[in-house]
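Sequence only, no structure available. Ideas?
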Amino acid sequence: MGRVWKCSGLRWTSGGPVLVWDGGRSSGLSWGKRVAFAVPEGAVRRCVGARGNACPVAAGVPGRSRGARCEECARLDRAHSVAADTLADDPRPYRVYLAWFGPGMVKVGITAVERGPARLLEQGAVCFTWLGAGPLMAARRTEELLRAALRVPDRIPYADKRAVRTALPGTAAERAAEVEELHARAVALGGWPESLGREPCRVVDHVERFGLLTPAAAAAVGEVVELVPGGAVSGELVAAAGPDLHLAVGGRHGVVVLDTRLMSGWEVVPRASDSGELGLPVREFAREPDGLF
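Reply:
I predicted one. Tokens follow.
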């Protein structure tokens, strides 16, 4: 079967996206690079464990699971999670941000100051601005205040983000407009915790870093639903955002989006192919009708 690889996820570095593999290996990705691998026949997707520890029973997990964890390991993973409000005594300073993923799609969130913009890259934020920084609980209270007052969510499904990437506004000013308007409304609100210092609106645009304005990136027609035993993919990387790779696989699919979180827990093998190929189930993006009928 050859050498087997197990993916640990996609990371964003100063040099761009990197696929990380169990054992410390990594594969830097660049536009035009071919991503090609296959899932061996008879393979079973196994739980990836929690907090650096292997799953004690190597439980099988569903192919469509983004977390690739069994129920027990998922519970343990969230036991020390800022997102689950289980780290109220975290002494690190946190930032509050507004992130924009497409027209009408803005969220508020928090991230540790020491992480810089990494959280925004991991979420696939097309652009964002900081709102303020301070202790964790002050940041959390501000997040809740803004979520209620501005009527913006703290989570946006990845499927929704993917569907709008093919029709983003063409200029940075257009992409920044909603963020700037919401930032102005946010800083005008009363009730901010005194310990959270406010920050001016400085919109950071990730479109060029993600490669999303190329014709190939805009041509994505759907997303891979899951990996399956015996399935394979071979495609040229045309864009990447968050955990997603936009791959030109040719044929009837053209360009599809692969969420690399679907790779975790599978054993995969390299596939030597100079041409596009896709042997995995795909869900097409919903398209707005061109006319009245």
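The longest strand covers residues 93-102.
Hope that gets you unstuck.
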